[in-house]
Amino acid sequence: MTRSRPATAPKAPHGQPGAASKAAKTLEEQLPELRPGQSVELLKELHILTREGKLNQDTRRKLKQVYHLVRFIEPLLDEVLAARGDVTLADHGAGKSYLGFILYDLFFKERPVGRVFGVEARTELVDKSRELAARLGFTRMDFLATTVQQALTHPGLPPQIDVVTALHACDTATDDAIAFGLAKQARFMVLVPCCQAEVAGVMRQNKALSLSRSPLAELWRHPLHTREFGSQITNVLRCLQLEAHGYSVTVTELVGWEHSMKNELILARRMDRDRAASQARSRERLQQVLQELNLQALTERFAA
Length: 304
Description:
By secondary structure, this protein is of the alpha/beta class. It contains ten helices and seven strands.
């Protein structure tokens, strides 16, 4: 009995791709967010693209978050620019300054005014950012090797900053960025908090003194729940603090949860009109939450 051979796809003529092969994607197909005139060299320097110009899959998620954040920030920059003819932005916990560089490339580069300040405590990252900005001709970018607290009195920063950003600033660094924004009378603050441990730690210490007699004690029976509940309460307190200082606050998602678990975006706008009654209510509610959860030890941090 003769066995039949399995059918095989016919070979393509010489010089033509086979049916199973795919044509190499263009950069625009790999990265649909890419805008005309955007610096490909910058994307390579940030390791978003490989030296061959291919999309680096390891940084794709980071890039998606940054692009989404840029879309939120650009209208705010336009609003400030239209109001006073200039605009300053300070990015806290800048790291490798993905956000600052891409904002400069997409928004500031083609405008004759505006300045970006990157605030980062790690000197080696600041040095690299300075070198890259000089190489690309991004002349209105400044990088400061300082903590957020020290930035409050740093001579390299102007007395007022229009927009304050903090993308994934860890633990209390987001609170420091808020304090900076309040001190600098920022028109807008754009915050994406990251890991937060301080409130959860205080809750664990004081759990026997707080809501332990009620079913709500289940919120911190398991360490994971304590951490997540502490994270949620931290951002609630931050929003109340901002509202108590006269800001209108919006909370939304930055990107889909498949891209990042730290996905909460807090947008704060300083209001010009009198909000004394609203501010008083927020201050009262802030104190009530601190007291109810026995977090009075954090009163100074969230001071209103």
